[in-house]
């Protein structure tokens, strides 16, 4: 399982989300799920539909436990984690998941995306 986790500003649209996703997934096996914090699911739903991928909502309480690479002051203040994208990916991928790298930022800086892989899937293409 490879999860693309997202964080984004209010007003982010499909082009921003898609751009962050495309940057994050370059060079990695196909993403199997998309995720973000539950309160932002409606904004991410059009991308999930366009990609034909399931969408997972992460409870806000699960974000703080995630060990993120990025330490954004804005994300810490708003969500209690250094990166909403990284924390969402890790939480949705489950116990033993690891990040494939830091978040990627869309060119317009409206959205971020990070990939996490479940430990049992490391080294496998799905």
- Radius of gyration equals 13 Å
Q: What's the number of structural domains? A: 1
The helix-and-strand class reads alpha/beta
- Going by CATH, the homologous superfamily would be CobE/GbiG C-terminal domain
If helices are DSSP runs of H or I spanning 4 or more residues, what is the number of helices? 5
Mean pLDDT over all positions = 90
Uncertain stretches of 5 or more adjacent residues: 121-126
Strand content: 15-25%
CATH topology: Nucleotidyltransferase, domain 5
Q: Biggest sheet, in brief?
A: 6 strands, mixed
CATH arch. level architecture: 2-Layer Sandwich
In one word, what is the shape? Answer: globular
CATH class bucket: Alpha Beta
The amount of helix comes to: 25-40%
End-to-end gap: 6 Å
| Element string (H = helix, E = strand) | EHEHEHHHEEE
Q: What's the number of extended β-strand segments?
A: 6
Give a brief outline of the structure.
With 126 residues, this protein is α/β, with parallel strands linked by helices.
Describe this structure in words.
Residues about 120-125 have low confidence and may be disordered. Strands 1, 2, 3, 4, 5 and 6 form a 6-stranded mixed β-sheet that branches. This protein has helices at about 15-25, 40-50, 60-65, 75-80, 85-95, and strands at about 1-10, 35, 55-60, 100, 105, 110-115. The termini are close together. The longest helix has 12 residues, at about 15-25. About 35% of the residues lie in helices and about 20% in strands. By secondary structure, it is an alpha/beta fold. It has a single domain (about 5-120), classed as Nucleotidyltransferase, domain 5 (2-Layer Sandwich). A hairpin with a 5-residue loop joins strand 5 (about 105) and strand 6. The protein is built from 5 helices and 6 strands, in the order βαβαβαααβββ. It comes from Sphingobium fluviale. This is Cobalamin biosynthesis protein. InterPro entries: CobE/GbiG_C, CobE/GbiG_C_sf.
């Amino acid at each position: 399982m490879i999860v693309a986790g997202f964080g984004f500003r209010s007003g982010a649209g499909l082009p921003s989300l898609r751009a962050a996703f495309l940057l994050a997934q370059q060079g990695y096996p196909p993403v199997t799920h998309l995720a973000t914090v539950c309160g932002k699911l409606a904004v991410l739903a059009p991308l999930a539909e366009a990609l034909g991928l399931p969408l997972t909502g992460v409870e806000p309480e699960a974000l703080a436990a995630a060990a993120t690479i990025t330490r954004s002051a804005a994300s810490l203040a708003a969500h209690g984690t250094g990166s909403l994208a990284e924390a969402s990916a890790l939480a949705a991928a489950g116990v033993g998941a690891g990040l494939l790298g830091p978040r990627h930022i869309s060119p317009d800086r409206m959205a971020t995306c990070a990939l996490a892989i479940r430990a049992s899937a490391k080294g496998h293409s799905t």
